[in-house]
Amino acid sequence: MATIVKVNDLSKVYQGGFEALKSVSISIEQGEILALLGPNGAGKTTLISILCGITSPTGGTATVDGHDIITSYRQARSLIGLVPQEVALEPFERVINTVRFSRGLFGKNRDDALIERILRQLSLWDKRHSRIRELSGGMKRRVLIAKALCHEPRVLFLDEPTAGVDVELRRDMWKIVEGLRADGVTIILTTHYIEEAEAIADRVGVINHGEILLVEEKDALMKRMGRKTLRIDLKDPVSAVPASLSDYDLELGADGRTLSYHYDTRGDGTGITRLLQALSKEGLSLRDIQTTQSSLEEIFVGLVKEGAA
Ligand SMILES: Nc1ncnc2c1ncn2[C@@H]1O[C@H](COP(=O)(O)OP(=O)(O)OP(=O)(O)O)[C@@H](O)[C@H]1O
Ligand SMILES: [Mg+2]
């Protein structure tokens, strides 16, 4: 796959001396959805702002489709759409004009059919003649998305596009993102809803304290870091885990009726067969068993904690 965004040793020290990015390097592939995860203040918005030319870096370089974001700013910027984290809209402007104007800013010809399609996709068509200040918070966020899409960007940055929006817009947004991906648009998304990354990302990057901790295929990451739990419901309660089972990493539920067995999927064997045999040898009858997999959220929390240690 071709690289579309290339970031080399990018650093940012804000006025006052705060180091928000520490030599960040990352390659983003054409057509992928990359989710950038990190706690508040990790440097996500700083990185996006630099790539979009809103903030200048203090070190390093970056290119978008080969165009340097500083020396070839115009070419680089023309390929980028940005949905910013903060809502910044003209309160007295009408929805449709705001979106049309955004397209014009990029030097593109007026295209009413495209704008209608985008506004309909975002359920804003009925509100097209409303003034921005008459919209709800979630609707304003939809306008930001419409503005970012209206000049047909090849790289789209979504900085927490679904913060504070309802479930429906979140689903709409995922659908739009899927459609854009099908058209070959590259999407970089930040979110605090980890299940959002789990649902739509191809790759996940974790950033904390201005440093990238890892960038990995989501599926591989979940396989590598994910642990599974086998939950065993016992027919009759026990007061303690039998001594013969002490070799297993078992947790007994408070009611004495459930045993949880944690295992990881990396090893050669899971140990489940042996465990079940051992249980039967102990004379314990089972009522039910089920397995659960740790979520991306659990993996993320573990990674960020580890980084802080
Ligand atoms: N203009 C600025 N001047 C000084 N410090 C700043 C400025 N903008 C951001 N910072 C600091 O840089 C760090 C990274 O901020 P940034 O906005 O990039 O974080 P973030 O990962 O986007 O966080 P969030 O999840 O809260 O949006 C924070 O400590 C923040 O206080
Ligand atoms: Mg941010």
Describe the structure.
- The chain has 309 residues and is α/β, with parallel strands linked by helices.
- It is 33% helix and 28% strand.
- It has ten helices and 14 strands.
- It has a six-stranded mixed beta sheet, sandwiched between helices.
- A hairpin with a 2-residue loop joins strand 9 and strand 10.
- Helix 3 runs parallel beside helix 5.
- The model has no long low-confidence stretch (mean pLDDT 90).
- The structure holds adenosine-5'-triphosphate and magnesium ion.
- Magnesium ion (MG) binds next to helix 1.
What is the top-level CATH class of the largest domain?
A: Alpha Beta
Backbone structural class: alpha/beta
Overall tally of domains:
2
**Major beta sheet summary:** 6 strands, mixed
Low-confidence stretches: none
Question: What proportion strand?
Answer: 25-35%
What is the number of strand segments?
Answer: 14
The unique ligands bound to this protein are: adenosine-5'-triphosphate, magnesium ion
Secondary-structure element order, N to C? EEEHEEHEHHHEHEHEEHEEEHEH
Rg from C-alpha positions?
24 Å
Number of helical segments with 4 or more residues: 10
Q: Assign a percent range to the helix content.
A: 25-40%
Mean pLDDT over the residues:
90
Global morphology: elongated
Strand order of the largest sheet: 6-7-8-3-9-10
The CATH topology assignment of the largest domain is Rossmann fold
The fourth-level CATH homologous superfamily of the largest domain is P-loop containing nucleotide triphosphate hydrolases
- End-to-end separation in angstroms reads 36 Å
CATH second-level architecture of the largest domain: 3-Layer(aba) Sandwich
Organism: Roseovarius litorisediminis
EC number: 3.6.3.-
GO molecular function, one term: ATP hydrolysis activity
Keywords: ATP-binding, Hydrolase, Nucleotide-binding, Transport
